[in-house]
Amino acid sequence: MESVYHQDKQYVKINFQSQDNRGAVYDGCIFDGCVFYQVDLSDCNFINCTFTHCDLCLADVSRTGFQDVRFSHCKLMGISFASCSTFGLSFSFEHCLLQHSVFAKLKLKMQQFNSCKLQEVDFTGTDLTGALFAECDLERAVFWQSNLEKADLQNSFNYQIDPEHNRIKRAKFSIWGLQGLLYKYEIVVMK
What is the tally of helices (H) and strands (E) in the chain? Predict the structure, then answer.
C-alpha cells in the first residue's frame, strides 16, 4: 500500500468516514471539528499534529503512529491505543472523553491527562512513571501491574488503585483520594 503524505494542512469540519485513510502520513496537520468515528486509521502516522473538537470514537488505530500529537476537547471513546505503533509514541490529552479506551502495556512515562474522563480505561501493565492526571475522573479505570511511580494523581478522583498490585512509590495522592487506595479493605475513611 502506497502512503499518501499530507504536510502542514488544516482540516476543518471534515468527515473522514467516507475516505480511505489507511497508511496515510499527516505531518504538522491541524484537525478541527473533524469526524473520524469508526474510521480505519490503521498504519497511519500522525507527527506533530493537533486534534481539537474531533470525534475519533471507535477508530481503528492498529499500528498507527502518534508522535508529538495533541488532543484537545476530543471524543476518543473505545479506542485501543494498545494496538498502535510504539515507535516514538508521544501524545497529550486535554479535556478529552476517553471512556472504555485501552492503554494496556504501553510505556507512557510523563504522560499528561488534563481534565479528562478516563472512566473504565484499561491501564493494565502500563508504565505511567511520572504521569500527570490533573482533574481526571478515573471511575472504574483498571490499574493492574501498572507502574505509577512518581505519578501525580493529587487532583484526580474516583480511582481505585491496589498498592499491592501496582508500583506507587513516590506517587502523589490527595488526602481525599486515600479511600481509592484502601477500597479493597472496606475501610470507611471519614472526611
Answer: 1, 11
